[in-house]
Every structure is written in structure tokens, then in C-alpha cells.
Amino acid sequence: MAMALSSAALPCSLLMAALMLLASIAQVQGITRYYDFNVTMANVTRLCATKSIVTVNGQFPGPKLVAREGDRVVVRVTNHAQHNISLHWHGIRQLRTGWADGPAYITQCPIQTGQSYVYNFTVVGQRGTLWWHAHISWLRATVYGPIVILPKLGVPYPFPAPYEEVPVIFGEWWQADTEVVIQQALQTGGGPNVSDAHTINGLPGPLYNCSAKDTFKLKVRPGKTYMLRLINAALNDELFFSVANHSLTVVEVDAVYVKPFTVDTLLIAPGQTTNVLLTAKPFYPGANYYMSAAPYSTTRPGTFDNTTVAGILEYEYPGAAPSAASFNKALPLYKPALPALNDTDFVGNFTAKLRSLATPQYPAAVPRTVDKRFFFTVGLGTHPCPANTTCQGPTNTTQFAASVNNVSFVLPTRALLHSHFTGLSSGVYSPDFPVSPLTPFNYTGTPPNNTNTASGTKLMVVPYGANVELVMQGTSILGIESHPLHLHGFNFFVVGQGYGNYDPVNDPAKFNLVDPVERNTVGVPAGGWVAIRFLADNPGVWFMHCHLEVHTTWGLRMAWLVLDGSLPHQKLLPPPSDLPKC
């Protein structure tokens, strides 16, 4: 809609009315927000060592992207680094705009050095905290930032409005180059070297060597409520998080409101976001408090970074100027008690508390019937070593692998979405991903003798509009562990979960079809299973993978192909003219 207004030609009252009309149109339709993301190298010092890292706009973590529900977002990404790059807008539905989703070789070829690509998408029916990150190799170790989607103008939060909102992003820091770390691991067949520190907003904090000056500090006023927008951008670690002597009220996960509940400690897996309300003590307490995060893992020691990161919650001193440095080392410093690193019971109890609001304004549109049922095993496995070599895998004749339904996914050299759209899929992928394991076994019992996985680039094809139910079953091959699975292009409802082997006869009767939590990344429980449902209403090719980066690299990934529907608004839009070429 175009409207030309001349203030000289309109009386003041009419001009005000016209401006109000324009404002109301913008409120309903949203506005377009433009961002320039320049991918550049920057020198960053952590743990008393300086290294060159890939960044966006020289910032680490990267810039915050802000939009309102209904807005169009246009991000021009220009690659000035020596690495190929692609960016993923984690959790954005990308309705019919799969070209803007970002995973390299799935929806696009990467942006090569010296090239640009414009990501163009509209935020439809979403509000809350999401995040963006690199989606090629291990570059997301440093290339990530928050996405804040505000409600439509005039629409309040379904909880008391906080005094202030603060993004809190957990990450991992390697003193080595992470591209070298993963390449060495792939060459040896062994596990990659673990990170040297966890970080909060890019800072390791006082529990690490030489890092007290690099500490995230949150200054609060007595009696005020703060909303922490928590994001786990770590590569390989699920994290417990707690603030000493303060409770946290969970109000949202993965940009979907939940029934509020209050905890001392929460769990957040890589890829997940959690909004929590923290209410400061009513009076100046004369103390400082650690905000701590440490890993949850059931794997062997040495295969993950078992260190704790802390930020500091400090109170403004009464009467002091707001800008005054208030951190006082002489004050007592309280530390939270975090669960044991392998406390799976805590994890199960926490995730069971998550429930959708399921109100008229924010309904839980759970598919009540199912058109397509799938059963996927997810877990580790092995590949034989190349001929005449020894490996550092589970044995000296094997290398680590990971798979879904025993298929270790091989990234193609041409992008899947373009191959599908043009009909030139031959030699790129096959549309025959198995609907269930080809060889059933006791998934959480004694592992089979043969742990080798097949390899391939297979897609699961689903018709538009199908109600999908997917059960993901963890396996005990090479040990039980939790796998945070992320589905691109969709939110899904977590209708059930449990430990041991899924029972298709008795477990569905326990499914929650009333107010299950809705999210985009869910943990498959260690030694257990999770059931999700979603409506396949988004045509395109959509990646699904473990958000533990090492497992994705080893092949714990696959892709869904949702076909076009019959109506115009049910079809994938054509690719943009600047889509990168391989």
C-alpha cells in the first residue's frame, strides 16, 4: 500500500488521523527491518591467549537481531573471511522461505569468500527468544547471536512485564582453532579435543585462569524483576544453570510461552532458549551472587568440558549513581549448588514441568490424529578405519560415527533444496529414508556386536498437510547419552517421553495431547525415547540433527522433504536471484 501525504494539503486533525492509520497498518502488517552482517576475522583474547576468530561485524558474541511478530527481516550477509559461511536463524519457521533457512548444502550452498547473500524472511506467529548461528562445519563456535522477537505492538506478555530484559548466551571457548580441532578428529577417527572454558556472553569469568576481568556482571535493583533470555550456544554441552539464593520462573522455551513454574536450577541444551523471570531481593542484601552453568552428561569423563562458568549478580548500592561501579570484593559471594553432572533424574523431572499455556489466545494446536508415523533410532556407532590405517575410535580398527535409523548422513556437494526444486535430484539424494530401523534390536539393552552404520544422503518425503508423529529412541551403542534434536522449519509438540525402550502398545495411552510443550529442539533422554507431533505445513527441505556438534559431524542428521500442497499458498516460493552457487 502506498500513500502520499502532504502536510500542507491536510488539516492537522486529518494529518493525525492519517498518521494513526499508517501506524495501525504497520502494527497489523509489520515493518521491514534491514541488517548488514559482515563476516570478518577479529582478534579476541580469552584465558590470557589471543587468537583470530570468525565474527559478524567484529563482535563476539554477534549483534542482536530485534524484530516484532509480523515483521519482515532482511539480512545482507557479506563474507570477508577465508572460510565459506552460511547463517541459520534458529527456530524461525521460514514458512515457504526455506531458501533463507541457512544450513549449508541443505537449503543453500555456502557464501564463498567475497560473496554476499540476502536472507529474507517474515516472522509469522512467533514471539520470544531465538538465536542465529553459523551452520557450516564448527564455525558456530564464535559466530552466533540472539534474536529477540517482541510481541505485536500493544500485545502484552502473558506474565507481569519485567523491569529489564537481558540476553544471556552460553558458549564454549577453545584456545585452539575449532576448524583444526574437528579436522584432526575426523582424520584420526577419535573424539575431538574438548573446549577450554564455557562462557556467558562470550566471557569465561572468575573460575578460569586469568579471566576475572572477563566476567559477565548483571547489576540489579532491589525489588525489580528481570527477564533473562537464556540461549545455549555451546557446541557440545547441555548445561545446568542456577543463580545463588535466587529462584527462576520459567515463562517461555524456544519462543513459545509455557505455564510459569519456579525452580532453583534449570537445564538448557544446545539449540534451546529459555526465558526466565528473576526477581531481585526487596532490600539491598550486602552480598554478590554467582550465576553458574555446568554440564550435564552421562558420557565418559574426558569426552566433554567438565568445568563451571560463572557470572556475577550484583545489587546497586542504595543512593549510588546508576553508572557507579558497585562490585565490591569485600562483600560475601554466594555460589549455587548445581546437580551432579550425570543427574538424569533431575533432567527428567525438569522437562516434565514444561507445559504449553493452551489458552484461547495461545492455543496448543496438537495434532489429534496421525497420518504418518515414524520411529527413528538416534545414537552413536562406528565406521571401519580406512584400509591399512589405525584409528583412535572405540577400537584401533574403528572410527566414531553417529546415525539416525543406522544411516549416517553424508552432506551432498550440491544443495538439497535447489536439487528438489529444479527436479535435478539424481545423484544428489534418494527419497528413501527408512521409516523405522531396518534391523530392530534391544535399543537400550546390551548393544549388538556389529555397531557399523550405513552411510547415505536419504530424505524422508512427507505430503503437505500430513499430521506427523515421530518417536526418537536413544540407543546404548557406545554408551547412553542425551541427544538434543533440532528440527528446522517447524515447531513440534512433545507429547511423550520415557526411559528404556518405547512401547508402541502401552506408551501412546500416556501421551499428553492437551498442553504438551511446543518447541524446536528436544532432548532425547539418555537411555530413553521422546515422541513428537507436528503438522507438515511448510513445503521444502528441512534439516533435522543432533545439536551436539560432534554428533552432527559424525552423521547424526537427516532431512525431511515436505512436498508442495495443491493451493498457491502451500507451495515453496522460487529461489532468490542471489542464491549462492556451489
The secondary-structure class comes to mainly beta
CATH architecture of the largest domain: Sandwich
The first-level CATH class name of the largest domain:
Mainly Beta
- Helical fraction equals under 10%
Radius of gyration: 24 Å
Please count the beta strands (DSSP E, at least 2 residues each).
33
How would you characterize the largest beta sheet?
Answer: 6 strands, mixed
Separate helix tally: 5
How far the N terminus sits from the C terminus, by CA atoms, comes to 38 Å
Tell me the overall shape: globular
What is the CATH homologous superfamily assignment of the largest domain?
Cupredoxins -  blue copper proteins
Question: What is the count of structural domains?
Answer: 3
- What is the CATH fold-level name of the largest domain? Immunoglobulin-like
- Mean pLDDT across residues: 94
The low-pLDDT segments are 1-10, 21-26
Placed side by side, the strands forming the largest sheet appear as 10-9-12-17-14-15
Strand content: 35-45%
Enzyme class: oxidoreductase
InterPro entries: Cu-oxidase-like_N, Cu-oxidase_2nd, Cu-oxidase_C, Cu-oxidase_fam, Cu_oxidase_CS, Cu_oxidase_Cu_BS, Cupredoxin, CuRO_1_LCC
EC number: 1.10.3.2
Family: Belongs to the multicopper oxidase family.
